[in-house]
C-alpha cells in the first residue's frame, strides 16, 4: 500500500465528524465488528449511533440478535418509567449461548441511554431496538401462541398445528433438523400456513398506532422467524452456503420490514459482524455464492443509501469460547498476521487509532489489492488464527469507511445463566 494513506485521527467522539459527513443522507448505516467480544467495537458503535440518532434522525437500532429477546428490550426502553429493575436485569433475557453478545455491560449502558433519550420524546418517535436473527424458532412459536390465544382470532388453529408439529423435538431445533433432513415429513407446510393465517387475520383487523401496532408487527415477525428458521435448520444439516444465505436473507427481509413499519423516511442503524455487513461480493465469499446483508442492502436500496463501516484491531484481548457452547473466557488476541489489513494499518499508523474513508482511498492499494482481514467469531482458537480467521477482502469496496483501533480489550459480559440449548455450530470463520 502506498504511504499516502489518508487517515483521520480517532481519539474522541468529535473525530467522528468525518464519517458523519460521509454518511450524508444514507438511509441505512451498517456498523460492523471484527469480533463479538471486543469492548471498543461496542463503545465506538454506541458513540456513532448516538450521533446518528441525535443529529441525523435515525429511528432504530437493529442487531444480530433474536427477535423475541430484542423486542422485550425494545418495549422496555419505550416505557415512561423503568419497570425492569436495571438494564443488567433486563438483559438477562439473552440467556442462550453466546450470552455475552448482547448480555454485557456495554449494552446495559446503551439501554440506559436509549430509555433516557426516549422519555423526552413522543411515543411515536421513540428509538427502537430490534433483533434481525433467525435462531429463535421455539421461542417465536411460543410468542405466537400467546398472541393469538389472547386475541382469540382465526390464526389460533394454525398456530396450534405448527406448535404440535415441532413438539416431538422439544425445544431443540437441531434435533428437528437432523430428524427431517433427508425425508419429506417436516413442518414446512405448518409454519407457512401459520404465517399466512396470521397475515390474513391482521389484514382484516383494525390496529391502532403505537405499541399495539408494534405488538401486531412482532407477532407477524415471530411467524416469519419460524418459517425461515425451519428452512435454516434443514439447510444447515445439508451443508454448503445455503443456511448462511437463508439467515442473511431473513435478516435483510426483517430490516426492510422494520423500515416499512417506521415509514418511508425512516432510517436504520444495524449492528452486526463484519462478515455480515461488509459487501460479500468483495470477499472470497462470492466464490461459493455466499451473500450477506451488506450486499443485499446495497442491491435493494442503492449504494448511495447504504453506508457500511467496518471495524478492526491489531492486538489485545477478546471474549470468546474455545469451542461451540463452551464457557466464555478472556482470550489474548495476538498481533495481526504479517501483511494483513490490520498489520498494514498498524505499521503505517504507528500504533494510532484512525478512521479511513473509502472515498479517499483512490490510488491506494486498498482500491485494487486483496488483503487478509481478521474475523473472530464466538469460537476462537488463536493458535489457529492464521489458517482460519482472515477473510480475503478488497477493503475500499467492501466498506465505505473503516475504524481501526490498534489495541483493544475484552468485552464485559453479564453473569447470565446459560439456557440448555444453543444454536448449532455452522458458521464460516466460526462467526
From TrEMBL:
InterPro entries assigned: Emycin_Estase, Hydrolase/PRTase-associated, UCP036794_erythomycin
CDD domains the UniProt entry points to: Ere-like
Pfam families membership: Erythro_esteras
Protein name: Erythromycin esterase family protein
